[in-house]
Design goal:
This protein is an alpha/beta fold and 289 residues long. Helix content is 32%, strand content 22%. The protein is built from eleven helices and twelve strands. The longest helix has 15 residues. The N and C termini lie close together (11 Å). The mean pLDDT is 95.
């Protein structure tokens, strides 16, 4: 089998070039000895996967994707379009969904991550009555909580679309959920998640990069590039190996009581690196798979 290659998103304005957001990474991947190809992310999201992979050479072997987030259904279309060209993705569609969306990974990490409940909700679907959210929240008990979709939160709109001081406050909870859904718009991923709020020390989160169950890199979280804690990883590693996805990330933070907690799990293909990190060491580890 040929060595893995990397599929990067193309520049919408210069189709023969990588998207500027990933240009440094594409160059680093090539320095690490990888072949690279370009996919059209816009065409993929528009439901034209054949055009999206039109620049990927036929029968060119297996690939890791590296680019913008893709809804799981579109990722499955990408997988099928590549297969029609004699190529493959090293993370299949089922594994991508499992690592990318909280309901896919939560059970495995339940002892290591804040208590969570969720409800599926499609983008554009009418919001249910407020009692639906308060009923869901009863599974978390009393106290503060966090509202997010299956993939992302709106933490930069903390008070209006993320944090609920008291989950038992039905009116406030419904207002925050509604605002989250409004701001996410067509990008609402999967539905709405309610999470118990846990207090972390102000040392930032570590983003741990796992390949085939082994931690190959620990970086700062892109939102706090100047902070890099050194988390204990034994329990996290066991959960990653149980999840069974080949390339994943875990964002880990230290709770005030001294316990290391998993804040998020993600598919490594769409997880961000700190701005000053071109990923060359990471790509080198991926080429050894």
């Amino acid at each position: 089998m040929p060595a893995p290659g990397f599929l990067f998103c193309r520049d919408p304005l210069r189709p023969r070039h990588s998207d500027p957001a990933f240009a440094q990474e594409a160059a680093a991947a090539r320095r690490a000895g990888a072949r690279t190809a370009l996919v059209d992310h816009d065409a993929l999201l528009a439901g034209d996967p054949e055009s999206a992979v039109g620049r990927v050479p036929r029968d060119s072997g297996p690939y890791w994707y590296r680019g913008w987030m893709i809804p799981p259904a579109r990722y499955a279309e990408l997988e099928h379009a590549l297969a029609a060209r004699g190529c493959s993705l090293l993370t299949d569609a089922a594994a991508y969904r499992a690592a990318h969306e909280l309901p896919g990974w939560y059970e495995v990490f339940a002892e290591l991550t804040p208590l969570s409940v969720w409800r599926a909700l499609a983008a554009g679907e009418a919001l249910p009555e407020p009692s639906v959210w308060s009923g869901l929240a009863r599974g978390l008990g009393s106290g503060p909580g966090i509202v997010k979709d299956f993939v992302k939160s709106r933490k930069h709109e903390w008070d209006e679309a993320c944090f609920v001081p008291e989950l038992g406050d039905e009116e406030r909870l419904a207002r925050v959920v509604g605002r989250l859904v409004e701001l996410q718009g067509d990008f609402l991923a999967g539905g709405v998640v309610l999470r118990a709020y846990e207090r972390f020390v102000p040392g930032g989160e570590a983003r741990v990069w796992w390949v085939d169950g082994e931690a190959v890199r620990v970086t700062a979280h892109p939102d706090t590039p100047g902070l890099l804690p050194a988390p204990a990883l034994d329990a996290v590693g066991e959960a990653v190996r149980t999840l069974g996805c080949r390339w994943v990330t875990t964002d880990v933070a230290l709770r005030e009581d001294g316990a290391w907690r998993v804040v998020e799990v993600g598919d490594g293909q769409v997880s961000g690196l700190p701005a000053d990190d071109d990923g060359e060491d990471l790509f080198g580890a991926l080429l050894g798979t």
